[in-house]
Write a structure and sequence with these properties.
about 15% strand; alpha+beta; elongated; five-stranded antiparallel sheet; 2 domains; 9 strands
């Protein structure tokens, strides 16, 4: 079936979500899964469901997409019991309404649905009132940028493995993943000015700007202070964590993240500190009693001279 059709889910944001869940843009996700040979591939696109002037367009535009595809007879519900008319469904119910869309309409995967969304929404770009760009070129740029996160993903994995004896439940592991992801995301924001610092909150964004300036000036002491401030005031979150106090051994609050970051910075072994910054300002954390030769983010040498 998935050799011929793609499995598609539209996930729309509820209007009363807290501000840390893309509330300003009421972002929806379009997820497309299909089979290539023996491999199942899943792509996800984030699209604004609300324009800058406050007009909400997510439900109406998704309905238009489904109506358009129904007219071409290239869409069907994934289960016979489901109805193609979604006008009476809540946004929560829509998540349980998967679709099968013929692959001939999605030669480029999920971005073809994004392009149709924008077309039906009066020429937006990923749901926002921005100058339209080449979707394939934009996707290529995003994939290139994603490679910058490989080093951080490896560092997070190594950190989780080193703490495995403390992460004895899936919830603990999920919450710790949220903490580490936030910490590394902050470091990525410092090293990449193209990333929007506002996603961490207005106060944290000012600290990130200070940290970027410190990197440019080679001031590692100021960089550490600015990063600490950004961690304390970071209001971002992710699905694993959320803004909750974790009763399972790790601090899940912003203040707790700052304490955890400080504690990690102070950990040492026979070689010295376990956490350190490369000459470009990227935070690195190495396993205890093991050295690393290159920065996990930018790959420059961090060997002792």
């Amino acid at each position: 079936m998935l050799n011929e059709y793609s499995f598609v889910v539209f996930s729309l944001a509820e209007p009363d979500l807290p501000e840390y869940f893309f509330a300003d843009t009421q972002t929806l996700t379009i997820q497309v899964s299909h089979q290539e040979g023996d491999t199942l591939l899943t792509q996800t696109a984030f699209v604004a469901g609300k324009s800058e002037d406050g007009k909400v367009h997510d439900t109406a535009t998704v309905e238009q997409i489904i109506d358009y595809l129904s007219e071409t007879q290239n869409i069907q519900t994934a289960e016979p019991r489901l109805e193609q008319d979604i006008s009476n469904l809540s946004k929560a119910e829509l998540i349980d309404q998967p679709w099968l869309i013929h692959n001939s309409l999605l030669p480029n995967g999920v971005i073809d649905l994004v392009a149709k969304y924008d077309e039906l929404n009066n020429g937006t770009f990923y749901g926002q009132n921005r100058v339209p760009q080449d979707y394939l070129l934009h996707q290529k740029e995003c994939l290139t940028r994603a490679q910058d996160y490989v080093g951080s993903c490896e560092a997070i994995s190594n950190q989780l493995i080193s703490e495995a004896d403390q992460l004895d439940t899936p919830l603990k592991a999920s919450l710790r993943l949220d903490q580490l992801s936030r910490s590394h995301s902050l470091n990525m924001a410092v090293s990449n000015p193209q990333l929007d610092a506002q996603v961490f909150g207005p106060v944290a964004a000012r600290y990130i700007d200070r940290a970027r300036l410190a990197v440019a000036n080679g001031d590692m002491q100021e960089l550490a202070k600015a990063l600490s401030g950004a961690v304390r005031h970071d209001t971002s979150t992710s699905c694993p964590g959320g803004p909750q106090v974790n009763p399972f051994g790790f601090n899940a609050t912003i203040e707790g993240l700052a304490k955890d970051a400080t504690a990690t910075d102070q950990q040492e072994d026979k070689y010295g500190a376990l956490s350190f910054y490369c000459s470009k300002g990227h935070l690195n954390t190495r396993p205890k009693n093991h050295l690393i030769e290159r920065c996990r983010v930018c790959k420059i040498s961090v060997k002792c001279s």
